[in-house]
UniProtKB/TrEMBL annotation:
GO MF entries: oxidoreductase activity
PANTHER family: ER-BOUND OXYGENASE MPAB_MPAB'_RUBBER OXYGENASE CATALYTIC DOMAIN-CONTAINING PROTEIN, SECRETED PROTEIN-RELATED
Record's protein name: DUF2236 domain-containing protein
Domain ER-bound oxygenase mpaB/mpaB'/Rubber oxygenase catalytic residue range list: 126-311
InterPro entries: Lcp-like (IPR037473), MPAB/Lcp_cat_dom (IPR018713)
Pfam families per the UniProt record, alphabetical: MPAB_Lcp_cat (PF09995)
Length: 374
């Protein structure tokens, strides 16, 4: 798509979800209890639909829970299998590639910054951790085996994400500090870019991690997230089939939107702080920055204000240890071993994270726990 077509998408949102959310908050504009009930229901991801919601909200969940006619169960299953095998690395890609690339989109980053859910407040990192862990949980819910099946957690989670996006649009649209030049909050270009950051960018990142995927595996994982995009409210034409077409779509969006912003810089800093916080001790000091720079490259690293070139000798040193330990391994293999090790430690820390004295709501199915040795 050309730049004019992409810019037009910044004026488009999700009429179905917007209509439902506007109706709900118009009816309960001064009803704090109903408002809290609504957001609590959305924040609990895959939990069942709570009692007490209006009929039209219940209808939304039941009428939008079926797979689209074009969904291919075999491709979905192959995509799920890829996640079963490489889940820790895929979840690591969220932190070192997917989210940073989204933050480099100057206008789209404004939504995340304005909502305040990803920014440390007065030095308190709990909110940052919670939001990033919610994103990780969303990916697990969608990509786990049968996550998009009738009894899976992925569809219900995606339906709730769709309403949460509409809620953010509703409240930001009523605020006085939203610049129309940024486009509509969480518009179709932003949503399509986010979808590619979760799919084609992840596949690209796995390749950078020395993992050799077949074309069928790549296309299957793209298809899995194409189905997820349907439930989130992304227009079908913005969810292309196949890795090559999907990656090209993502590239066109990121090339159109990438530019430095204070919001992007703050978000990148919060992401680095999150990973450093999740990996206490000295062994992994500065490795998160090393990985962000390595996966992002010079242009995006400079846009995010994280510096260039990578200056962490520890990352290269550990990579060299893995290479030297196995005489049959080349440098790429050493980097792949380092990625796998870091990914497993990061996921373990997230799985055992507490905030406010309580264990975080973070669920990994038993089958994946066994495969990932958690």
């Amino acid at each position: 798509m050309n730049s004019n077509e992409l810019r037009a998408l910044r004026k488009e949102t999700d009429p179905l979800a917007d209509e439902i959310v506007t109706k709900y908050f118009t009816e309960s504009a001064f009803d704090r209890g109903k408002t809290l009930l609504f957001f609590d229901a959305l924040s609990r991801n895959s939990d069942p639909i709570p009692a007490g919601l209006p009929d039209y909200l219940e209808r939304y969940f039941y009428e939008t829970e079926s797979l689209p006619s074009w969904a291919d169960p075999n491709k979905i299953a192959k995509g799920e299998q890829l996640f079963t095998v490489y889940g820790p690395q895929i979840l690591m890609m969220l932190c070192v590639k997917s989210l940073p690339m989204a933050y480099s989109c100057g206008d789209g980053a404004q939504v995340l910054y304005k909502t305040g859910r990803l920014i440390e407040q007065n030095g308190v990192i709990d909110g940052v951790n919670r939001r990033l862990m919610e994103t990780t949980q969303f990916v697990i819910s969608v990509a786990q085996k049968d996550g998009l099946g009738p009894q899976g957690k992925g569809i219900r989670t995606a339906q709730k994400v769709r309403l949460m996006h509409a809620s953010i649009r509703y409240f930001l649209g009523k605020g006085k500090d939203w610049d129309p030049a940024w486009g509509q909050p969480i518009n179709q270009e932003d949503m399509a870019g986010t979808l590619q950051s979760f799919s084609s960018l992840v596949i690209e990142g796995l390749g950078q991690s020395s993992l050799k995927l077949t074309p069928e595996e790549k296309d299957a994982y793209i298809h899995l997230w194409r189905v997820a995009g349907h439930f989130i409210g992304v227009k079908p034409e913005l969810c292309p089939e196949g890795y090559d077409a999907a990656h090209a779509m993502g590239e066109s969006i990121f090339n159109d939107q990438q530019k430095p912003s204070d919001a992007g810089h703050e978000l990148a800093k919060s992401l680095l702080d999150f990973m450093e916080y999740m990996l206490p001790g000295n062994l992994f000091d500065h490795l998160p920055l090393f990985f962000l720079q390595t996966y992002m490259g010079q242009k995006t690293s400079e846009v995010l204000g994280i510096g260039w070139p990578p200056k962490n000798p520890l990352g290269y040193f550990i990579e060299k240890i893995f290479t030297d330990f196995d005489g049959h391994m080349d440098d790429d293999g050493g980097f792949g071993k380092l990625v796998a090790y870091f990914a497993s430690k990061l996921l373990f820390s997230m799985d055992h994270f507490y905030y406010g004295g309580k264990k975080a709501r973070f669920w990994i199915p038993p089958s994946l726990r066994e495969n990932w040795r958690l």
